[in-house]
Amino acid sequence: MTSSTASGGLARFNGLEEPAALAVLHEVCASRAWAERLLAGRPYATTDDLYAASDAATAALTTAGLAEAMAGHPPIGRPRPGDPASSREQRGMAGASAELKEEMLRLNLAYQEKFGHVFLICATGRTGEQMRDAAEERIGNPAEREREIVRVELGKINRIRLGRLVRDPVQEEEAGGRGMRQEEEA
Description:
By secondary structure, the protein is mainly alpha-helical. Helices cover 68% and strands 0% of the residues. Mean pLDDT is 85; it is low at 171-186.
């Protein structure tokens, strides 16, 4: 996404009362520390400033904060019922074969048993096979390495969700909604 001045969606976010801003940030990332850090940085002049703050807040998460953030994510292949964002982000598993879904379930359980949390990957734009392959590869990682990969993946997810949060609906309408489709396919 490109930088833009604080207009449209970013201006709306900057102007939200603190409880409302905290609520929308919690939809982006379940870590309270992450959300509070982003709140403290308002107002943001550009989306790039917001993304940089998100990246810094993600990098600064403690082990407990990272665990809190991961707890807000459902396992791959099982999007949270009634949550359109979860379904949209995991679209790559929607058309997967029963065998692939079964394999992903097995990998999710083995990963969770080894690391104590869900397999977290930025699923946007990935196929079911790509997510399966990533799970197979990452399950062999040492815990320290995997924690850093999870932090990077969380940062990617947070940026996509923040982009959706601050998107200017007027610009999207003028673009014929292409922005959302391009982002989801990326």
